[in-house]
Amino acid sequence: MRRTSVLPGLFLIASLGSAACARAQTEARSAADSAPTDSVPLPPGVYGTLSQNDIVIRLRTDELEVRFVPLDIRVTGLLGRDAAESLQRLVERNRPAIDSAGRAAGISEPGLALVTFFSLRDGTRFNPEQLTVTARNQLLRPLAFVPLSARFGAGQLDARENAMAVYLFQDLLPVWDPFTVHYEHLVSHDWERRLPTLARERDRLAATPR
């Protein structure tokens, strides 16, 4: 993921004057323009208009609903302000635990997803390790979990109870490619269907004057 820092430009304002600052700003714009638009998050304070429903993947049986939300700024940044900030706060609030779990699993830059198991009946059993992702012909298994609810480790839920955790994968999820979410015998290809909506919102925001 490429980011362009404004700090060199600010240093040039103080030390070399306005001409050098303009030159630095031109170089920064050029670098940003050359980066693939799908790999660069939106600038801080810029938000989209999508809802969390636009990025959640659901798998469901008569007893259990599984919800999968990629925690990737490239797509969470396309949400409206409240939804985007809520997910960003969730990650930052749990950052120490996420970093610790990543180090223990040997992951330097994990892909993150928020996974929720929601029970529709009493005594519903679930297995967190059975959720996987297939992308680019590769099977991606979670290498670590950061539980966000006490019931996550119980393996069983009563009606309307939920168990939630942040899942850590080896690499960033390929959110601009189709991927498939699996849980036991359930399979969802919905992400491919979401991509056109996400791409339109990304391109709209990229074309909006700042």
Description:
The protein is of the alpha+beta class. It has 2 domains: 7-35, no CATH class; 52-207, Sandwich (Immunoglobulin-like). It has 6 helices and 11 strands. The protein has helices at 7-15, 18-34, 73-76, 81-93, 95-105, 190-207; strands at 57-60, 64-70, 111-119, 124-125, 131-135, 138-140, 144-147, 156-157, 162-169, 179-183, 186-188. The strands form 3 sheets. Strands 1-2-3-9-7 form a 5-stranded antiparallel beta sheet. A 4-stranded antiparallel beta sheet has the order 6-5-10-11. Strands 4-8 form a two-stranded antiparallel sheet. Helix 1 (7-15) runs antiparallel to helix 2 (18-34). It is globular, with a radius of gyration of 20 Å. It starts with 6 loop residues before the first helix and ends with a helix. 24% of the residues are buried.
Short description:
By secondary structure, the protein is α+β, with helices and mostly antiparallel strands. Helices cover 34% and strands 25% of the residues.
